[in-house]
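Quick check before the chapter quiz. The format below is the same one you will see on the exam, so make sure you can read both the input and the output lines.
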Amino acid sequence: MSALGEVDARLFEPALGYLDRGRGALFRVSGPLVRPFVRSRDLRAIALVAISVTLALAASAFATGYLLLWGPLAFGVTHLAFEARYLLPERHKKNRALIAILAVQALLAFEGLAVFALPLAAAAAVMVTSRATEPATRRRHRAWTLLALAGSSGIVLAAPSWSRFALLHLHNLVPLGVWLVWRGRPRSVSATVLALVASALGAVLLGAFDGVPTHTPLSDRVFSIGKVADAVAALFSSPYRKRCLVAFAFTQALHYGLWIRVVPEEARERATPRPWVASWRAYKADAGRGFARMSVLGALLVPLAVVALGAVRARSLYVSASEFHASVEAVLVCILLMDRHRDPRPRAERDGRLAESVDPRPEGCHFGA
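Here is the expected output.
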């Protein structure tokens, strides 16, 4: 067994087991209060989104600089692992043509050319992941998708600055879109979640927090909020410059919360929460033991990078290393939408990743029926 395997078996899984027992004890104490949320995935989603929106809005409005500095360091590596797990369908992981397209798109991102190649990469990805034989409705849907991507190429070439601006901001809302299309649910639940996000974002963009000072943990010479604003709001002047900055901080924080906590609620077959040990074992079975362990190791190395390099340099390193993911994410979303059109079953079932088959339900914290 590798060193990471030893750490996993002797330290990580046992620690999760203790957390499961603690969560089980807490549930037994507060059972009548939390039982409806435990039993209903939809109620739980609304509650989780409401908590995420509230925390993200408060932090982005009253601690903008702190959120922009520490948010990527705290959640960046983890959310990238979750993106990779949920956006790339199981049946496409061995598609060499698709992997090549994603690799080229990632390389172009580091050259600043990703936005120009994005429509072409998305169209190519849709083509190489399509089945040879398809029903007529599927072919029509693909044709309209390719036509829309072709039209977007002209928009990108005509207005690259606006295209980069749109990609930078809209990619933060990708997990919300993934959550909406992952499975069928009552429309009232989807509408409630959308209303929570839209009301918070609308409050920011309409100036509800214009009078709040922009708090930052470090001087502008060390960590420049102005430079961040140049990146996310360069096309606007005051007061919309600050509003775009706060809106970006809000959606970025929401982006992390949705990928790490809300989307996983949709991805498993069972409607009730799993014990953390079972979730970890399911992650290893789904993503591969090596990838799962390296993702945890990567998240744990972030504090060491902060100590060794300082928070500002560590954040800069993360942002530079993850620059590719927005455009790659957009390509994978196109595939997800095509898969959704093809088969209305839940995504976990379509991918053959039934959570119950890898859910041994270890002792402690059984929230199941």
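If your answer matched, good. Residues 3-29+40-350 form one domain.
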